[in-house]
Amino acid sequence: MNNSAINTARLLWAGLRALLVLTLVTGVVYPLVVTGIAQGLFNDKANGSEIKADGKVVGSSLIGQAYNLPLKKGQETPEPDLKWFQGRPQNGLGTNSVNTQYKLILSGATNRSGDNADLIEWVKDAKAAVIKDNSVAGYTVKPSDVPADAVTSSGSGLDPDISPRYAQIQVHRIADKNGLPVAEVDKLVKDHTEGRTLGFMGEPRVNVLELNIALKELIKGN
C-alpha cells in the first residue's frame, strides 16, 4: 500500500472518529444535560406550565381556553357559557375536533388597522355583548366599565389572562348563574389576581383557567 492510500485511510479514520465523538457530545450528552437542567431548575416551564385539576392536566397557564356552549343546529359561532368567567375575544384562534376546549390550530392577530370598519364593528358588537351578558338584576354594566381586553383579542389570540377590571365586571353574573354570594366570587377574583412581574413589569392580571378551576371548587362547596 503506497503512502497516498495510507494517508487517505488515516484521514478517513480520523474523520469517522470525529463524527462519532461529535455525535455523542452534541446528539446525546448535550441534550441530556440541557434537559436535566431544565427539569431540575425550571420543571414547570420545561413541561409546558401545566395546570392540573382532579389529578389531570387540563391546560397550560400560558394558553387561553374557550368556555362556550355546544353549537346548536345552524350556528356557526358558539355562544359563551355564562356560568364561567370568559377570557378575551379569540379572533386569532382556529378550531379542532380533538379537544374542543382548545382552539390552537391557528394563532395570530386580526392584522387590521385601528380604523378598519370590520374591526370597529367587531369591537362595538363585543362591547354590547359584554354589557348585555354581565348586567344582571341589581347590577348594570356601563359602557365606561368595559375595559379594552374585554373587546379585543391579543396579538397571538391565545392570551390566558384578563385584567382584574374585566374579571370584576363578570362577578355579579357568575354569582347569579351559579347561585353564589357575590362576596365569595369577588374574593375569588382578588385571590387569583397577580401583580406586575417583579413589581414593575406588565400589568396586574387574572389567569382565566386557574380562576375557573377555583370557581368549580367553590360551586362544589356550596
Strand order of the largest sheet: 3-5-4
Approximate shape = elongated
Average pLDDT, rounded to a whole number, is 86
Count of the separate structural domains: 2
What is the topology?
Layout: H1 3-41, H2 43-46, E1 50-53, E2 56-60, H3 117-134, E3 161-162, H4 164-168, H5 171-178, H6 182-191, E4 193-194, E5 205-207, H7 208-221
Antiparallel strand pairs: 1-2, 3-5, 4-5
Helix pairs in contact: 5-6
Short characterization:
The protein has 222 residues and is mostly helical.
Word description of this protein:
- This protein has 222 residues and is mostly helical.
- It has two domains: 1-47; 49-221, no CATH class.
- Helix content is 44%, strand content 7%.
- It has seven helices and five strands; from the N terminus they run H-H-E-E-H-E-H-H-H-E-E-H.
- It has helices spanning 3-41, 43-46, 117-134, 164-168, 171-178, 182-191, 208-221, and strands spanning 50-53, 56-60, 161-162, 193-194, 205-207.
- It has a three-stranded antiparallel β-sheet with strand order 3-5-4. It has a two-stranded antiparallel sheet with strand order 1-2.
- Helix 5 packs across helix 6.
- The longest helix has 39 residues, at 3-41.
- The chain starts with a helix and ends with a helix.
Features:
222 residues, two-stranded antiparallel ribbon, single chain, 3-stranded antiparallel beta sheet, 44% helix, 5 strands, mainly alpha
